[in-house]
Amino acid sequence: MRILEPIKEMQSWSEAERREGGSIVLVPTMGALHEGHLSLVRDGRKRGERLVVSLFVNPAQFAPHEDYAAYPRDFERDQMLLEEEKVDILFHPTVEEIYPEGYQSYVEVEKLIPLLCGAFRPGHFRGVATVVAKLFNIVRPHAAIFGAKDFQQLQVIRRMVRDLNFDIEVIAHPTVRDPDGLALSSRNAYLNAEERAAALSLYRSLKRAESLVLGGERKSRRVIEAARAEIEKERLTRVEYVSVCHPETLEEIEKIEGEAILALAVRVGKARLIDNTILRA
Questions:
Q1: In terms of Cα–Cα distance, which of 119, 120, 129, 173 is closest to 151?
Q2: CA-to-CA distance for 197 and 203, rounded, in angstroms?
Q3: 3-class secondary structure, 86
Q4: Which residue is catalytic, options 34, 37, 173, 246?
Q5: Cα(141)–Cα(169) distance, rounded to whole angstroms?
Q6: Phi-psi region for residue 123, left (φ > 0), alpha (ψ -120 to 50) or beta?
Q7: pLDDT confidence of 180, banded at 50, 70, 90?
Q8: Which domains does the chain have, with CATH numbers?
Q9: Alpha-helix runs per DSSP H in the chain
Q10: Mean pLDDT, residues 133-141 taken together
Q11: Can you give the pLDDT at residue 65?
Q12: The pTM is what?
């Protein structure tokens, strides 16, 4: 595995690979890798001749009061894990490379950004869309893989790819969970034992919602109330939102017909956790 930091070196490598006809798959990450990330990497390994993993903790997607400085980082461990997965390139640029002095260009996805998490994290998805657009232009992959746990992020990127005519296939990888149902996240490291037990209420709430819809419930309000009640049984949880929404527009819907997304965000201790499930009527 080669580690590239300068943007020009990454671009030169990709240009040479494309000239030779090799397909490039990108897995963007912020490091602190866990089994969820590695499942994306293994998926990517099967989908193209060359696999690039980017590791960049993106300051543009953190608000001033959020955990950018405290976000978990362990580059040596991440490097070892990626070498074991036979990654071709680890792209690890500096902040100064990505956002040089005088930087002022950002990507907005107007209708999707203010919804769900965007209402609680102003500027977050602008930062996500911007850095992903830059990674696409630098790495020039044929395909890129993102986890479905970050469903709003996935939809923002899909919309950006369509609107800006990126010739890239965006692939959604299913949410990876611990055996007890907790979705894997780098922020799970913030949880102590009691908080982690409380965090299992998120998964229980999703299963409760799925069960109601399978049983014939079609009113979003009742599904939301049941999911929220499941989470609020735990004294350590603070619900930010529970929403039943359209799977592409992310706009809230009153009646579940066909497919809908139940998405939620909950604070448990210092951790802000998100999760979602598809509801099929």
A1: 173
A2: 11
A3: coil
A4: 37
A5: 9
A6: left
A7: very high
A8: 2-173 (3.40.50.620), 186-276 (3.30.1300.10)
A9: 7-19, 35-47, 75-84, 95-98, 124-139, 151-163, 193-214, 220-232
A10: 98
A11: 84
A12: 0.96
